[in-house]
Amino acid sequence: MAICGSAIAISWRFSLAQRRAWATALSSASPGPATASRTSRWPRSTDIRTGWVIGGRSGQATRSPLDRCMMAAPTGRIIDGDHCLLIHALRTRPRAVVATQMSNLGLELGLQAAGMELIRTAVGDRYVLERMVAEDLPLGGEQSGHVIFRDYSTTGDGLLTSLRILETAAGAGATLDELAEPMTVYPQVLVNVRFREKRPLEQLPGVQSAIRAVEAEFGAGGRVFVRFSGTEPLARVMVEGPTQERVESAARRIAAAIAAELGER
Fold it and tell me: Which of 70, 88, 97, 179 stands 20 to 30 A from 113 (CA)?
């Protein structure tokens, strides 16, 4: 019953109505067996063993450190930070949501379909929070499950995120699968290219040509993001698109262009 104890311990920070809603959600929860086969990483759908059954329909798994939250639906669908952001945004309707360049295109399109904007920042929760404060926005986070509810906290809180999603599920009488349905997850590939010589990407015509070709090929149904690592001699190539095969091919083409211009180590 650890999650219930933790929920009670932090519930003094919230309104009576919120505490009642969360108590209703938690009262229908029953503990199950182990949440995942490993706790040192995010669970895959094949690892999930239902840890909490909400109304007998929704499984939940959280990872230490508890600043992040990942959930699993009965079908094995993984509910990551992007899903949590969209689920909460569709309920609360902020004018915009803040996320990083790594958030899935499906989050952006899901928000746009509901008349909301996605504001992207550099990777890192501190950049997310800075933009939330600058834009006076209540909701932001990362695909990794780090979600910031600025009305309550200035950092991610896995238990708080869990409770907010459970509150939404209880209020709507919906399963996690049903809550996640509005988001189409686009295949996403990340390729690292180790280089010998670092030069600004804007000064690499071959790389820019490869990026433009992929963007033209995918149009609004894809996205390319290329950046240098801040700690290693690596260029990180992220591509999203309609199919896994096509995004892998596109990422390889861009990676090859980077290796050709910067020299692969």
Answer: 70
